[in-house]
Design goal:
28% helix; 7 helices; Rossmann fold; 258 residues; 10 strands; 5-stranded parallel beta sheet; alpha/beta; 3-stranded antiparallel beta sheet; 2 domains
Amino acid sequence: MRGLGDSIHRKGLKYALYTDAGVRTCSGDMPGTKDHEYVDMQAFAEWRADYVKIDWCNTQGQDIVKTYKELHDAQHAAARPIVHSLCSWGDGEPWKWAASLGHLWRTASDICGPGSADWTLAMKLTAINEKLYPWAGPGHWNDPDMLIVGMPGLSEAQNRTFFSLWCMMAAPLMAGNDLRGMTPATIQILTNQEAIAVNQDPLGIQGHIIRSVGNVDVWAAKPLFDGSRALLLFNHGTRASIIHPGGMNKPTPEIQLA
């Protein structure tokens, strides 16, 4: 496993590992970390992992806060900085207590099945995650799940929209597509420096909807570290719309959204 991690690092990528807080992983056929928290976290550190996702399957009878705290303590005892991802799919409302125990927490269900993207589900998860903006900030993030940009089932416009929403929500950006077969359009979206700068802004403020007009959502003019602001207008209808970003009665320019 250490050799695998070294190979991943040589490619300029991060080395992420998966485990489960219960007795078995979600597949049911592999052991989880229950009663082995310290030895497992020490092993992940020795393998030079950068990121560990800890699922919440097969945890019957376990207290969610106590369990994730023990895993947090075990990780710190291993003495290697590792991004700690809690994945209870929103169970236990981790945004209310997990900021001191992990770096990010899943806010809802998985975003897609193996190898395919579901736009309707992605928009459902967006709606759930958007409402949790008060709990996000530097070092503790709401996680609506991985990026589905470039996966089968989405149009180029949907890919651009999805990436824009994740960047506006300060969501973790983890590519879920096959990096070996990306189209030029997918590469352009995933490497959009302006959008990534909004996502990675040091203030770490999660954008959210401040007004909806028909099929158009106006997302907050998100304050950025340099004093500028990011604005997102999302037309989730099927026809072009005209919106006044500053409000119905304010003399702001009209913007037409396709």
